[in-house]
Amino acid sequence: MTPEELKNLITKYKLDQCTDEEKEWVEHWLDSLHTQSEDLSATKEVRIKASLQERIDTAIKEEENIIALPVRQFPVWRVASVILLVALAAGVGIWIGKGHFLKTSVAYMEIYNPPGRQKVIQLSDKSLVYMNADTRIKAPKSFSGNIRQVYLEGEAFFEVTKDPKKPFVITSGKINTRVLGTSFNVKAYKDEPQVEVAVRTGKVQVGDSIQTVFLTPNQKASYSIKEQLLTQTNVTQLENYTAWMEGNLVFEDKTLPEIIQILNRKYNVTIQLENKELSQCKLNARFKNEPLPRIVEKICLYLGARYKKVGNQIIIKGNTCQ
Questions:
Q1: Which pLDDT score, from 0 to 100, does residue 276 have?
Q2: What is the distance, to the nearest Å, from the Cα of residue 321 to the centroid of all Cα atoms in its chain?
Q3: Which candidate, 77, 92, 42, 85, places its Cα nearest to that of 61?
Q4: 282 vs 94, higher pLDDT
Q5: Among positive and negative, which fits the CA dihedral 152, 158, 160, 164?
């Protein structure tokens, strides 16, 4: 049987489309692999996972030569190994040792919300994700296994459907946010120096491979990407962290470049500083669902600066902070 025929047969088996004879053949084959994996101490789980991709590539390259020659010229263990690797490449779960099962591949969906927009999506478990501008979510089309894991790049507010048997995990770079059922905001833009998690309801676990904190309502965690340091603080005004959901902006001790970064993302424009000395300016301000021109005017008035608009670009001019 060629690798392609094997893949097709395994796919039919997963979809429950096999004939009785084909089903019997596949189940017998899986059982034989299970038995063999227990007898061969070299096929330990850690070693298989560590070198799996390299072995798959090698096996596929060698496959034409292997199937072109009589099977008797190859040791039985090598033939079984090649078939096992081909099956793994097809995304089939295989027993690799007593009590251990190599996971099947998962079908993912990836959703990107571009600058200048907001989006709400519903995951397969009915959890809601409110995506801020320039945000990317990667999640399984259907949750399976013991956890519900999604990947976030950007900012989103989560309303997680409660399921005590399946924790919900959000991975943002090195940081994992783990919950059972709650609502909270995660900010993890790749071009910003830290990851922030602010909790509205429930209990949330945040951490990397070394540090962990547990958050309750009106608390936040901040993770410095450069220093790899995780801190926990109380939040007096949680609405500041979710203001974006209503189109509002809250700037607390933000530098002008930080503010420009947020405005570029929210309004899908390009704002630049003509004088780099303006980068040192800091601002505290609130804008309630205001149009971009009015926001820029107020910022310039506060700084004693001026601006000009060229196409989709805004250039702020000024000397230093006043």
A1: 87
A2: 39
A3: 85
A4: 282
A5: positive
Placement of tokens 């801190």 in the chain: 231
How does strand 219-224 pair with strand 229-234? antiparallel
First and final C-alpha spacing in the chain: 78
Which residue segments constitute the domains of the chain, with CATH numbers given?
A: 3-101 (no CATH), 108-240 (2.60.120.1440), 247-317 (3.55.50.30)
Residue type, 105: S
Give the model's pLDDT for residue 235.
93
Token reading at 311: 């196409």
Place of tokens 């399976």: 144
User: Over the stretch 107-136, which tens digit does the pLDDT of each residue have?
Assistant: 899 999 999 999 999 999 999 999 999 999
User: Alpha-carbon distance 281 to 18, whole Å?
Assistant: 69
Could you identify the residue written with the tokens 């809250």? 250
> Mean pLDDT highest for which of 17-21, 62-66, 80-84, 182-186?
182-186
Paired tokens of 270? 């390009």
Place 311 in a pLDDT band, splitting at 50, 70 and 90: confident
Q: How many helices (H) and strands (E) does the chain have?
A: 7, 20
- Dist. CA 15–CA 9, nearest whole Å: 10
List, in sequence order, every residue forming a beta bridge with 150; answer none if it has no partner.
Answer: 170
Whether residue 24 contacts residue 9, with contact meaning beta carbons closer than 8 Å, is answered with no
Worst-scoring range by mean pLDDT, 28-37, 85-94, 191-200, 246-255? 85-94
- pTM exceeds cut of 0.85: no
| Contact call for residues 233 and 219 (beta carbons, < 8 A) | yes
- How many CB atoms within 10 Å of residue 67? 13
Beta bridge partners of 101: 95
Is residue 29 very low, low, confident or very high in pLDDT (cuts 50, 70, 90)? low
